[in-house]
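Folds abound. Consider this:
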Amino acid sequence: MHPDAEALRAVGSAPLSLTWAALSRRSAGVTQLLARCGVTAGSTVVIELPNGGAHVLATIAAWRLGATVLPFRPGLPAPERSRLLDLARPSLVVVPTGSTAGTVTVAEVLEAAPVEPGTVEATVADPAWLLASGGSTGSPKLIAPPITTAIGSAGMGLGSSGRVNTALPDGADHRHPTYLVVGPLSHMQSFGTLHRTLLDDYRIVVMERFETEAVLDLVESEKVSLLTMVPTMLLRLLRSPTIGRRDLSHLERVFHGGAACPEWVTRAWIELVGGERFVLGYGMSEGIGTALIRGDEWLEHPGSVGKPLNCETLIVNENGEPVARGETGEIYFHPSQPGQVFRYVGNDSVRELDGHFFSVGDLGWLDDDGYLYIADRRTDMIVSGGANVFTAEVEAAVLSHPAVEDAVVLGLSEPEWGQRVHAVVEPRHDAPQLNLATLQEHCRAQLAEFKVPRSLEIVDSIPRNEAGKVNRRALVEAREATDAGMS
């Protein structure tokens, strides 16, 4: 339709701009490179690259050959990387530098000679991709998602062709929509949305890494239509001193997913871009259940992640018995569409109920109108003095303190209470010094007394990965091994 229009732009240390014609010919050339390295239909190709044009070219090239793509983060700890590679058994790993047997480098991908795409026979990959998951709650695992997740857009706030599936604002320009990739392509939200929107004729702009002011600069200069972000990114953009004078008028959708978001952050974004433009999503890598809600609907059901889509939902207690509406329990889903069958690569298993309801351990409840609310992960929940404390709720209160830049809440062992609520805080550089007493006073205005942090630890930075997630288990184990963190 428009071979000379720009399809892909990568910004950062390795800038690249490709038209649709160039993207087609360049990716076909990389296909021949991968074929010479032994990649065939049914192979697995690991893309171990930072964000950039080479990541997209290598992915498309692998798919042309009918190979399964496994994107994962470069720089993983050696034990975790080794376990993932043992599970994946890849035919090829695409790496940043240092070509060895079984690998190709970014330079080789970018230097592959373009060829006409018709000279390369395309084969459909099944599964299209594997997902690395589980690092924040236990041993790493690989997930082969259901085919409906691979070819559709459930859980991403997009329609079956990639378009946003809720009514867009009047007058929105759909001729040349632009998706700005701000999250790591090792994360499903960014990786899946990039390739779905690319197939629907979006122009893709890929950032090498998230940087607050650079994101806002690109939103303005590239007239960005779509952003997908995790809560940490939403919070950092809100705290930019320039956000109030930025031109965000071209944004048709700001999509949030990946983790629980403090309600005050959601309200601020709804006020900033409008309720009809802000979409919240909930789902899991296994693809067994999703929910979506638009910002204006969220204001009528604050805190909700929306009504579950294409699945039956069951909330049960620890005995597997259904609970009343409004009561918190473990969330189980039963997919109602054919093809929603996932599998783990390795020995991990999902929690099952009655043979056809599945859970990944999230806790939540349904209101009287059928809207779903997420409380926490079962593995993250703190039991202090016999009472349940949901870390997401406490973190939202801590993060609302004006002196807090970032925070994570942990449950540390304590003989008297079983666990105590412990806040690990990264303070803002321009804020007054924070201490436990002032933080507790702030939290008491929002939380019951037993939920208020009993100890505080100040750190230079919260150890989040590029997707904004933290490994709580590792943080707890490190503190309990050294008896650190008391304040």
In short: The two ends are 63 Å apart (CA to CA). The mean pLDDT is 85.
